[in-house]
Design goal:
Elements (H helix, E strand, L loop, with lengths): L15 H12 L3 H4 L2 H11 L6 H17 L1 H15 L46 H20 L6
Helix pairs in contact: 1-3, 3-4, 3-6, 4-5, 4-6
Length: 158
């Protein structure tokens, strides 16, 4: 059976990248599902850092902690704030202050495995929203928690 670079065994849709790409496609058709987009991206890239850019991992780790600490609405507010600041007319740039209270990414990663990964997500009639948006949101929270725990086990960030 195929294994993903995060340590997960492939599921019915394939490896984590197959799940991730399917989620991204479904988000385009479902604005309610899209609310978790930032969480999905952070979790995927923190579980598969070779798929992203190393210089952004610390910020993604802090975003994930913000989400777990303050919830989805706070994450969406910060995303809207960052988009407004990043507007070419604003020229204010990215605001790191809201993420400063959170632990930096620990060195020595990535973790070898995570207690849950994308291949653990159920998929069926209705795609990833087979049992509603609230249940999907809980699964995203579980993925986020598993990602945070695995990274924090590596030790304190620098």
């Amino acid at each position: 059976m195929a294994q993903c670079d995060c340590g997960a065994t492939a599921g019915p849709l394939g490896v984590c990248a197959d799940y991730y790409n399917t989620i991204l496609a479904e988000e385009q058709l479902d604005p309610e599902m899209y609310r978790w987009h930032a969480v999905v991206v952070c979790v995927y890239l923190l579980q598969h850092p070779s798929r992203g850019h190393e210089k952004y991992l610390d910020g993604q780790f802090r975003w994930l902690q913000l989400y777990l600490d303050q919830g989805l609405d706070a994450t969406l507010r910060l995303r809207a704030h960052q988009v407004a600041r990043n507007n070419h007319r604003s020229r204010a740039g990215y605001d790191l202050a809201p993420l400063e209270p959170y632990a930096p990414l620990p060195p020595g990663g990535p973790p070898a495995s995570f207690r849950t990964s994308f291949t653990d997500l159920p998929y069926g009639d209705g795609g990833f929203i087979l049992d509603g948006h609230a249940a999907y949101g809980e699964r995203m929270r579980t993925l986020a928690e598993a990602t945070e725990v695995a990274w924090k086990r590596l030790g304190p960030g620098t």
